[in-house]
Amino acid sequence: MKNGISIILLIFLFLMTHPFVGFTQKREKMDGALRAFIETPFMKKFKDLRLESENLVLTFKENKQNYSSAEINKVKTAYQKTVDRFNTQLLDIKADFMNERKLQYIQDFPEDYTSGLTSDINDLTSFYQSNLQMTVQDVTDATVDGNSLLTLVAELAKLVPGMVTSISELRSSVKKFEDTYLEEKLIMPYKFKTWDEINY
Amino acid sequence: MKNLSILIVLVIIFLNQTIAFAQTSTNKQLDPALRKFVQSEIMIKFKDLKREAENSVSSFKSEMNNYKPDQIQKVKTGYDKTADRFNQELENMKMDFLNKKKLKYIIEFPKDYARSLELNFRELAQYYAENFQQPLQDVRQSKEDGGIVIAIFMELFKLVPEVINHFNEMKEMATRYDDAYLDKWLVTPFKFLTWTEIQTEAGYINMNNTNNLYNNSLNTNPNPYPVSPDPNTAYPPATNQPANAGMDTTKTNTQNWWETNTTLPVPTNIDGSAPAKNTNVKSTPVKTKAPDPFAPIPVQKDTSKIKSSSVKVN
Q: Are the beta carbons of B46 and B311 closer than 8 angstroms?
């Protein structure tokens, strides 16, 4: 009887601890893999881009007394439209990380994924130029030119191959990532803020 | 000994089968799915680009006497590099059709493939402009902006997403495609010719018409007469011999003109003058005989059906 109770207790203990051990191990693996990805020049540049765009908005907001509400609204809309595109791109990358088949595809055919992503970044560059940059230049009479941001987006496209290599490599340790994990580690730190969130 | 003979027979049968398969794969008719793809708007645009580029070379060749060798070389190198890039894109497409794993992915992630293809075409457009169009304009000191080619490229970019639908349709059939089959139907008809393969447009010395870019769809043979003429044969006066008859101004063809062309007689008017310029028909500088994927679908007779009227039931 006593033996029976001991065995049940042991089994109970094992069941209690085992999922945590598995969870911790999985988390460590994901951390290691994602850290390598986040440290790629592509992601660093992406973050620079985010900070630079916030800086642009702040500079504009500082001088908003010089502009009419219609002009402010014009810049706000252009900013919001542009960062929505960037955030969608980030969400697309997250979706790829959560798709086991897609990760396999990236590992098998990295050139295709590289070309696709480069094409997307080129589109983002054009979108930024024709929306936010043009609007800001119009409204501020080119006092704010937005060129530093443009340089960053253009450089981003060149960094895609290294980023894709990193995805291919992380696939060997992690088959797929979890939604909440990526939301916390990838989306939150890199997501572009909304117009209203940008304040001193 | 008996076993060895059986083994040899089996090996021979296997080799025979393999050779037969290789031969039949190129003789196979164009299947409907691939036909639809090669006749799609995007492939038509691709062919238009090929024609525009080849026509530019052909026209340039006909006026090559006006340029220095280094200028000619510049345009030639630019064209050949560009043609190589386009042909490589075709080869890549062919490889995608042959790669079952890749086909699966294309169906599964169509957006990625379409985006990647779009980027490739955009890079091709840039390459074309920088490496062929620009040197050509520089050498010719021409102010042509290559508007037609740009327009074709723009349309090409827009058509990229439709390629995915074709891949989807071909998914089933693609397992039967092999390298030789795709070479015949997908690569050869769309492949950019090399500089040396593009013939200069035949021009005629016409006292009333000094246009070097004379197009004659009936005859592209600059030397219609045999190499060793029969002294007993009387030939029409040589008034309308092509401008470059007797010497190959291009000096690039490894073969002689008379070996690469059909020997149609020079069409002349009664007075010996050059025939009227046919402005409606423009000759295309195609030398290699490629299958025509744009030909109508051959109607196959269904021999299994018997006319009901011809069947008599007793």
A: no
Is residue B285 within 8 Å of B193, Cβ to Cβ?
yes
Other Cβ atoms closer than 10 A to A43: 22
Class of residue A14 by CB neighbours under 10 A (exposed 0-12, middle 13-18, buried 19+): exposed
CB B197 within 8 A of CB B287: yes
What is the per-residue pLDDT across A78-137, written as a single tens digit (0 to 9) for each? Answer: 999 999 999 999 999 999 999 999 999 999 999 989 999 999 999 999 999 999 999 999
Residues 6+ apart with CB under 8 A from A193: A50, A54, A83
Q: List b or e across A106-143, with b for residues whose CB sees 16 or more CB atoms inside 10 angstroms.
A: bbebeebbbbbbbbbbbebbebbbebbbebbeebbeee
Give the span between the Cα atoms of B188 and B166, in whole angstroms. Answer: 19
The answer, yes or no, to whether residue A44 has pLDDT greater than 90, is: yes
Nearest to B119 among A101, A108, A119 (CB): A119
Instruction: Mutation target for A interface from B93, B111, B116, B123: give the one with most A CBs within 10 A.
Output: B116
> Chain B: residue nearest A112 by CA?
B116
Name B110's Cβ contacts closer than 8 Å, sequence gap at least 6: B161, B164, B167, B168
- pTM attached to this predicted model: 0.63
Residue B70 pLDDT > 50 = yes
Give the count of beta carbons closer than 10 Å to the beta carbon of residue B50. Answer: 21
Cα distance between residue A162 and residue A42, in whole Å: 7
Taking the C-alpha atoms of residue B102 and residue A2, their distance in angstroms, rounded to an integer, is 61
Comparing C-alpha atoms, which of B261, B271, B275 is closest to residue B237? B271
The span from the CA of B175 to the CA of B190, in Å, is: 22
Residue B81 touches chain A, beta carbons under 8 Å: no
- Among the partner-chain residues B105, B109, B115, the one whose CB lies closest to the CB of A115 is B115
Paired tokens of B302: 């269904």
Sign of CA dihedral A149, A151, A152, A153: positive
CA distances (Å), A98 to each of A43, A111, A167, B32, in order?
A: 18, 20, 12, 38
- Quote the radius of gyration of chain A (alpha carbons, Å): 23
Q: Per-residue pLDDT tens for A75-84?
A: 999 999 999 9
pLDDT tens track for B260-298:
333 333 333 333 333 333 434 334 444 444 555 555 544
Considering only CB atoms, A112 lies closest to which of B108, B113, B122, namely: B113
Residue of chain A whose alpha carbon sits nearest to that of B109: A102
CA triple B288-B191-B150, angle to 5 deg: 125
Return d(Cα B167, Cα A92) in angstroms, integer: 23
Which H or E element spans position B269?
none
Tens of pLDDT along A137-156?
999 998 888 898 899 988 99
